[in-house]
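To whoever is covering the structure queue this week,

Two jobs came back overnight. Logging them here so there's a record in the thread.

Job A:
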Amino acid sequence: MSNNDLWIRDIIASYGVIVMIILCIGIWIIRKWPGLRKDIYKAHLLGFEIECAELASPYKEHLFKALQYIVSNDEMLRSMGSIRILEIGVKTGENIQFYPEGTHLIGVDWNVKLGEYLVKGHRSWQFSHVIIERLIVGDGSSLKEVPTGCVDVVVTTRSLCSVRSIRSTLQEIRRVLTPGGKYIFVEHVPEKKGTCKRWLQIALTRTGIWPSLFGDCRLDADCVAEIENAGFEKVSWTFLALEGYVSHSFHLSLSKQHVFGIATR
């Protein structure tokens, strides 16, 4: 056997082991990926999203004061002094603390165990002032289970970024709202065009890296124009950058620009 043959054999032997290791790791990741993705997103919800909600809490408290002045279009709820709220993307229920006593809540979320969490979870006492009327598994782009014009308020917070279609979701929001009903939104928006962060937001989204890790969240989703053109009678909002300590500062730096607003049906 020539020296060249020995050299080739040694290369195959050496790199063959490396290739086999890489293949084994790849197969393991493919098999485990659904579970890993679920665990990553769960940690994201119970960590960063709660921290982000705490940073936004003072601003949301001011925004949700509008709920105090809403009179239900439902005769029975009106007689009880209650209102009906539909929230898309309930997550860990951080908004429920702002809902008036006796609120009838329709929750929309992909979490099939949301009802168990809200009613029997270790934080269920924080949600006891509202009545869970219905829970729908989904993202809000189709609310066929909800009759037209039966909801007094719709709420979304950091949720439009992950729906299948922002336009379809807004059409459904407008449909289920009563005449004069309110759509309250707190959504993160992209950085200004031409900035390095905007480029990074686009790259992480379009490569699928960010959505695959964080519940289909799209960092480049800009909902403002969509809300403006959704056919609401009136839309008002303000831009605000969330600042403060979170355990994942890089994550906040890419999703800190927010729009807080209210649209009227």
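Job B:
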Amino acid sequence: METNMKATLCEHTLDNAYLAHPDLRGAIVHSDRGRQYTSETYRQALSKYGIIQSMNSDGGRCHDNARCESMWARMKSELLYDRYNTESLTTDELRVLILEIFHQLLEQQEDLLCQRWASSYD
């Protein structure tokens, strides 16, 4: 998480994704036509990992990315803004809060999987 949308942020995201999931070759990354996604260095990073770039067909067509944008807006509303006063947080505090929320969600999913697994042996 950064306070800007520079190409280097997008490249670091690709690097981190590859470190976590080395089998990304052939994956498709969809984005809008922002400068950070059309930069030569970002396109080279995609090529390096064998990732296919997908963009909306014409600049300014928001509908291509509408479902993804809607999901992020809903997530921010339900998990952050409705529960926490984020306006008073620094960027670092917000970063920690988001990590804590995702950690809690992962623990909940893990608990559900364990319960489902245990009940299948009853």
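Note for Job B: Strands lie at 28-31, 52-55.

Please reply-all if you pick these up so we don't duplicate work.
Q.
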